[in-house]
Design a protein that fits this description.
The structure holds 3 protein chains of 3 kinds.
Chain A: H1 3-14, E1 20-29, E2 32-42, E3 48-51, H2 58-66, E4 73-78, E5 86-89, H3 100-110, H4 115-128, H5 144-157, E6 162-166, H6 174-189, E7 193-197, H7 201-207, E8 210-215, E9 218-224, H8 225-230, H9 235-241
Parallel strand pairs in A: 3-7, 3-8, 5-6, 6-7
Antiparallel strand pairs in A: 1-2, 1-4, 8-9
Helix pairs in contact in A: 3-4, 3-5, 4-5, 5-6
Chain B: H1 2-20, E1 26-32, H2 33-38, H3 40-52, E2 55-61, H4 63-71, E3 77-80, H5 83-91, E4 95-111, H6 124-134, E5 138-140, H7 146-157, E6 167-169, H8 174-184, E7 187-191, H9 192-197, E8 204-208, E9 215-223, H10 233-243, H11 246-254, E10 256-257, E11 260-261, E12 264-265
Parallel strand pairs in B: 1-2, 1-3, 5-6, 5-7
Antiparallel strand pairs in B: 3-9, 4-7, 4-8, 4-9, 4-12, 10-11
Chain C: H1 2-15, H2 18-51, H3 57-67, H4 72-83, H5 98-134, H6 139-149, H7 151-167, H8 170-176, H9 186-195, H10 199-231
Helix pairs in contact in C: 1-10, 2-5, 2-6, 2-7, 3-5, 4-5, 4-8, 5-6, 5-7, 5-8, 7-10, 9-10
Classes of the chains: A alpha/beta, B alpha/beta, C mainly alpha.
């Protein structure tokens, strides 16, 4: 690990990850209310798993939090100075038409990491995610699992304080899912705030520190994982946890 | 990929340099397609260059366009065949001096079976009238060139207003007009030089020649220094003088295609 | 006669006639240089139109697309009036030089490169946009990434531009003047030989031109496929 990464790690290990605060946030498109208004604060250790049936607004909530979309109402705020460093891993990884290592170097370059340390950081990250053998292969010919790991490695080199993951394993086989979950734990241990959506309740049980449950564009409850899975409060969450079909 | 790119860049830069490197001593001559297509310039320009070291770059266009090039100051010298137009050019102040250089003649070309019976005409006027009477297809340059202007004068002489389905104005150079005539089995008036050198005759043949009104005079013009001071007047004057000198006139007389002399020097 | 033309083309190539060689080299120099200049200007222009929203953007796209069909002779006339002694850039003395031909071909090729690269970059941007925003990239920073990632599509665009440049005759005839040994290129030589009624020679030159264009396309295809396999 280079000194740069080490110092970033040290700083984020000392400080708690930045808290995320939604205040009356709503999002409408063409006069149709798709999400909210919702208010909550993510200030625990996490990882925070955003759950709910399809169309509940999970992805939308993540995109708003990450700043890919702007809320039509309300305010999104972070604790601490300014906007924290953050990254996002998508359901379908978006990789450049270049080699695996070039994808990471590009991410470092656009974040103004000095040229001389880029390839070292990139190769270290590839090794960490078990992709050393693929470093010079075109990113787009890698398997689905390798591509998602590469997307995680790309997030890793940026040392984000917050990492958003949008259904990162929904298209993967069990072995690849395991690797992604291990990576998520590694980010978490490094002190990165994890906010991840999933529709897989078993995955949520394995990873969640707290659960934000959405249905119909509204936050139904936000509770520690244990409470959510054992004693859900809202009728929607009760039905969801019980394995019923929830709209 | 980057290596390839660098190679390409280096190559193209070299090309750019190569393109900009050219001789200094040259003039641009606006002249007619008939002189260029016949090969006259290919024969006489090397002799001039040998004598003076001056390269002559020929832009071969219709006479109308040649005048326009000279009027805008884009040519250093002018060699055309429209005596009336040349005199007007001097009157308008664009040229200072004109000299007869050479002549050739126009000939009437048509399909070998000669439906208008042009072969037996006693004069050019009679031949043109016969074509109009028979309404036999005739292809005209229609491009305001010297040849086109001469052709229109000949229709006037014949007392005919060329009009109708049979009269086709092409708006093309001499060569393309001959190509079209060959494809259509049409009559066409051509300068002799282009006709003799023309390679795609098919069914066309020479039907009428020799009338004095078919005389085609070429003139060289010295352009006005006042209008266009930037032109290479010194070099252009050398060219002008060489053309009407003994050497130049001899070079013109020596140019032959298939053993046939195409231009007849007649500088005074 | 067609057989005759093939024979003429073959003997032109085999004998490597000096004046033909000069014409071929000039044709390639003019068209390649024009395409390179047009690419340096046109690709960033196309990418910029794809990336930025501004008033009149739709109009710009329509104009670029329409200019792809600009008649070469009109481009030639515009450049002629520009470079003519009586025109605004007459002082340069560029008329009837290879440089003038390059300018005219840039005018012809630029809209093709800009319009097609705009389309390719916009398609790619649709795919990359969220990731780019997530990485915190500005639009200006997105441009080189998109142009590089679209390189294989842009190579095809480049070939389309080169095809237009090497095939046109109207513009180079007007601003070059078809001067023997100075501005005579393949297409103007073909027009000249057709005018002389030397149809076999004209067709022979056409076959030589076609062969060259095919070789260049084959080379570009080969390079493209090789790097595509390597870089994905």
């Amino acid at each position: 690990m280079t000194s740069l990464n080490a110092s970033l790690l040290a700083s984020s290990a000392v400080m708690p990850p930045p808290a995320l605060c939604f205040e009356g946030v709503a999002f409408s498109h063409e006069d149709k209310l798709l999400l909210g208004p919702c208010s909550f604060t993510l200030d625990g250790i996490g990882p925070t798993l955003v759950m709910g049936p399809n169309g509940a607004g999970k992805s939308l909530l993540l995109r708003l939090a990450h700043g890919l979309l702007s809320p039509t109402e309300g305010k999104i705020a972070w604790s601490g100075e300014g906007r924290p460093r953050q990254a996002m891993v998508f359901q379908q990884p978006v990789l450049l038409r270049r080699s695996a290592v070039a994808n990471l170097i590009h991410a470092l370059a656009v974040n103004n990491i000095p040229r001389r340390v880029r390839s070292k950081l990139a190769l270290d990250a590839l090794e960490r995610f078990g992709l050393s053998a693929c470093a010079n292969k075109p990113a787009r010919v890698l398997s689905g699992g390798q591509q998602q790991r590469l997307a995680l490695a790309r997030a890793w080199v940026l040392s984000p304080q917050v990492l958003f993951l949008d259904e990162p394993t929904s298209a993967l086989d069990p072995a690849a899912i395991k690797a992604v979950e291990a990576a998520v734990r590694e980010f978490h241990q490094r002190g990165t705030r994890i906010v991840m959506t999933t529709h897989d309740i078993h995955q949520a049980r394995r990873l969640a520190g707290d659960v934000l449950f959405l249905s119909g564009g509204k936050v139904r409850e936000h509770t520690p994982a244990e409470a959510f899975f054992n004693t859900p409060v809202s009728p929607e969450a009760q039905a969801f946890v019980a394995g019923e079909l929830v709209e | 990929m980057k290596k390839t790119l660098n190679l390409v860049l280096a190559g193209v830069t070299a090309m750019g340099l190569a393109l900009s490197a050219h001789a200094e001593d040259y003039i641009t001559l606006a002249s007619t397609t008939s002189t260029e297509n016949s090969g006259l310039f290919g024969a006489i320009l090397p002799k001039f260059e040998e004598a003076t070291g001056i390269e002559v770059r020929v832009v071969a266009v219709g006479t109308g366009q040649a005048f326009e090039l000279a009027r805008r100051g884009d040519a250093d010298s002018l060699l055309v065949h429209d005596t009336a137009g040349e005199q007007r050019f001097i009157e308008n102040g664009y040229a200072t001096e004109r000299a007869d250089v050479m002549y050739n003649d126009f000939v009437l070309i048509g399909p070998a079976d000669d439906p208008a019976n042009v072969r037996d005409a006693k004069s050019a006027a009679e031949a043109f009238a016969a074509i109009a009477k028979a309404e036999a297809p005739f292809t005209s340059r229609g491009d305001d060139s010297g040849t086109n202007r001469a052709e229109l004068r000949l229709w006037e002489n014949a007392g005919v207003e060329p009009d109708g389905e049979w009269y086709r104005e092409l708006g093309s150079g001499m060569g393309p007009t001959l190509n079209t005539a060959a494809a259509m089995d049409a009559y066409v008036m051509s300068d002799r030089a282009t006709w003799v050198a023309f390679g795609n005759r098919q069914n066309l043949t020479l039907l009428f020649e020799g009338d004095n009104v078919l005389f085609n005079q070429y003139g060289s013009l010295l352009l006005s220094e006042e209008k266009h001071p930037h032109l290479k007047h010194d070099l252009a004057t050398q060219w002008h003088n060489w053309l009407i000198s003994e050497d130049g006139q001899q070079a013109i007389a020596d140019f032959k295609v298939n053993g046939q002399q195409l231009f007849f020097p007649n500088a005074k | 006669m067609e057989n005759n033309a093939f024979y003429v083309a073959l003997s032109l190539l085999v004998n490597l006639d000096a004046s033909l060689f000069q014409i071929v080299v000039l044709s390639l120099q003019v068209s390649l240089l024009a395409v390179l200049i047009a690419a340096v200007l046109g690709f960033p222009l196309g990418a910029a139109v794809a990336l930025w929203r501004f008033p009149g953007r739709g109009g710009v796209i329509v104009v670029l697309n329409a200019l792809m069909g600009l008649p070469p002779v009109v481009a030639g006339l515009m450049v002629y009036l520009l470079l003519s002694r009586a025109g605004p850039l007459g002082e340069l003395g560029f008329l009837f030089t290879p440089g003038a031909m390059v300018i005219a071909q840039v005018v012809l090729v630029l809209p093709i490169l800009a319009a097609l690269s705009r389309q390719k970059v916009e398609e790619m941007l649709g795919e990359y946009r969220e990731q780019f925003v997530s990485l915190g990239m500005s639009r200006g920073r997105m441009m080189p990434t998109l142009l590089w990632d679209a390189r294989f599509a842009l190579l095809t665009v480049l070939l389309a531009g080169f095809g237009r440049a090497s095939a046109e005759v109207g513009a180079v005839m007007m601003v070059g003047g078809n001067i023997d040994g100075v501005t005579r290129v393949m297409t103007t030589a073909i027009v000249l030989e057709t005018g002389k009624g030397n149809l076999p020679l004209a067709l022979g030159l056409g076959i030589v031109l076609l062969t060259l264009v095919m070789l260049i396309n084959a080379g570009a295809y080969w390079v493209g496929e090789r790097t595509r396999r390597r870089a994905g």
